[in-house]
Amino acid sequence: xxxxxxxxxxxxxxxxxxxxxxxxxxxxxxxxxxxxxxxxxxxxxxxxxxxxxxxxxxxxxxxxxxxxxxxxxxxxxxxxxxxxxxxxxxxxxxxxxxxxxxxxxxxxxxxxxxxxxxxxxxxxxxxxxxxxxxxxxxxxxxxxxxxxxxxxxxxxxxxxxxxxxxxxxxxxxxxxxxxxxxxxxxxxxxxxxxxxxxxxxxxxxxxxxxxxxxxxxxxxxxxxxxxxxxxxxxxxxxxxxxxxxxxxxxxxxxxxxxxxxxxxxxxxxxxxxxxxxxxxxxxxxxxxxxxxxxxxxxxxxxxxxxxxxxxx
Length: 312
Prior knowledge:
Radius of gyration: 26 Å
CATH class of the largest domain: Mainly Beta
Strand content: 35-45%
Structural class: mainly beta
Number of helices: 4
Number of strands: 23
């Protein structure tokens, strides 16, 4: 009986030691070399095709993981909460990564395509910049498909995920076009358009066209953000921020999860290099997170006067 009780106690002790609150549950990936060191040096090294785990971090708390890639790949990180700063290093120096981060970005509640990563060892720091949160983390390694990524190019490849500099565009400023229509640009679809059509009080959304050199009618579409919605002649399509983001008071895209999250977004936090403002009437002063002070910046005109130069 004493031996049985001793065995049960030993199993219970091992189980409780393996379920520490600070332990990071891992799904997928093989540990190559776990350590008891701190920070970057304490990160477990994984050899994986993909990995997923769930964890909890307080504000300003961070964790480290490391991984070993066997081949060049397109690297994407997924975190289902906004406000986590991810820094990827190609070396480890004590408690922090060696040198400057190769990549650094902030999560927005969905996936972020990091870019091409060559084979080798990498260290990833995940820092919670906002309030305490539970989150799910995963890494995806995708096959690289080279091609033209610009949608208005003649050889646009919708299956490509890495640009290879192969894009081919219409040559609009030929003698025929210039003599008949004046200076030309590429429209939103890669077709030739007279630059004089931009901001001429007609919304060129494909309803009008011009003749090409073969006397075929080619529609002209200037209704896109790149051409400032025909310089104001067309209505801007609202909701062009990426999924999980929304226009703030100053029409910068910010994470929609930042609205009413307990932090006053009055420009104190930045996202993608822009100060984010939800402290305005449109967002009910960040859904009560701010004290009601209207702190909206003076906006520049949405559609400035003047002509858009060729190539912009």
